[in-house]
Amino acid sequence: MTAQSAPGKSTLPVNDAPYTTVLYDDPATGRRLRTRLTPEIARVPFELCRPIRNFPAYRGRRSHQGKYWFSRSQRHVGFESRFEMTALMMLDFRGDAIAVSSNPFWLLWPKGVAPMRHAPDFFIRRCDGSAQVIDVKPADRLKDKDRLQHDRTREVCNELGWEYEEFTSIDATIERNLRLLCGYHHQRFEPPAEARTAIVRCLQKSGNGGTRLGDLIDAASSECIHLGEDRLICGIYHLVWSGAMHADLTRPLSWNTVIAA
Q1: CB atoms within 10 A of CB 57
Q2: Residues 76-83: contacts with CB under 8 Å, at least 24 apart
Q3: Residue 151: what pLDDT?
Q4: Which residues, 6 or more positions from 157, have their beta carbon under 8 angstroms from its beta carbon?
Q5: What was the pLDDT predicted at 7?
Q6: How many Cβ atoms from other residues are within 10 Å of residue 14's Cβ?
Q7: Which 3-state string (H, E, C) describes 98-155?
Q8: With contact defined as beta carbons under 8 Å apart, do 121 and 135 qualify?
Q9: How far from 20 is each of 56, 94, 164, CA to CA, in Å?
Q10: CA angle 172, 177, 182 (to 5 degrees)
Q11: For residues 15 and 116, is the Cβ–Cβ distance under 8 A?
Q12: Do strands 21-25 and 66-70 pair parallel, antiparallel, or not at all (unpaired)?
């Protein structure tokens, strides 16, 4: 393992070695390190690493970039496009990711191999301690270079015992529903303990088949007289987001949507 100074903004790293290397900023010291693939590298907490590359900003840029507030880790994660934000939103909703970092390392393939490098989009640490790497790109924009990079990244992940995923599409209805629910993913929308108990009790009375969202709101309103209906609706959406309640997201959310425990 070697340490090196951080390159300039426009400098892209190269690998002169006859083997694949990983370039990253150590989360503990901030030093930029380059190392070959070893079992030890799999134990680095890449979910804590800062991005290894800058997100370019320039006049006429068409993609949207920003930071997504990841509710499971309560930290912001950078993204470079609306589609990457959608991928983060889906990861957040799944509930098994406890920490995510964006572009935490460069994979540098041996000299003479093309393409020479790739910085995977996201590194995920899951609840059980396992790791996952995700590359994000719409299926209709994937080129041969992208597919080759992803195949080689998958090989690296297999060698290190990480799971690899390509996020290339999402159902339009599911995406719209997630965007609605995501508006209530922050903890400030969690209903007070007394109101949560009342909501759950009303849902349980409906049995295993669940109840319509509109009916649940009406029933819970009669028990949560000190909580306004708007605040109650926010609380129910938050509980669906957090997995405490469930809804079929393949259909548009409406007052007729069935909510189940």
Answers
A1: 7
A2: 77/101, 77/102, 77/122, 78/51, 78/102, 78/103, 80/55, 80/121, 81/136, 83/136, 83/137, 83/138
A3: 96
A4: 133, 163, 164
A5: 46
A6: 10
A7: EEEEECCEEEECCCCCCCCEECCCEEEEECCCCEEEEEECCHHHCCHHHHHHHHHHHH
A8: yes
A9: 26, 32, 18
A10: 125
A11: yes
A12: unpaired
Residue 221 burial (CB count, 10 A): 16
Stated length of the chain: 261
Written as six digits, the tokens of 128 are 């059980």
Q: What predicted TM-score, i.e. pTM, was given to this entire model?
A: 0.90
Task: Name the phi and psi angles at 133, rounded to 5.
Answer: -115, 135
Euclidean distance between CA atoms 246 and 234, whole angstroms: 15
Instruction: Give me the amino acid identity at 87.
Output: A
Cis, peptide link before residue 192, omega less than 30° from 0:
no
Cβ partners under 8 Å of residue 198, min gap 6: 220, 223, 224
What are the tokens at 69? 């507030």
pLDDT at 234: 95
In this prediction, residue 61 carries a pLDDT of 60
The rounded distance, in Å, linking the Cα atoms of 107 and 13 is 10
The Cα 175–Cα 158 span in angstroms is: 30
Q: Of 137, 142, 143, which Cα lies nearest the Cα of 122?
A: 137
DSSP 164-225: EEEE----HHHHHHHHHHHTT-SGGGSPPHHHHHHHHHHHHHT-TT-EEHHHHHHHHHHH-T
Ranges in the chain, pLDDT < 50: 5-9
Query: What residues does 260 pair with on adjacent strands?
Result: 246
How far, in Å, CA of 203 to CA of 189, rounded?
A: 19
State whether residue 22 is helix, strand or coil.
strand
CA nearest neighbour of 19 among 112, 83, 130: 112
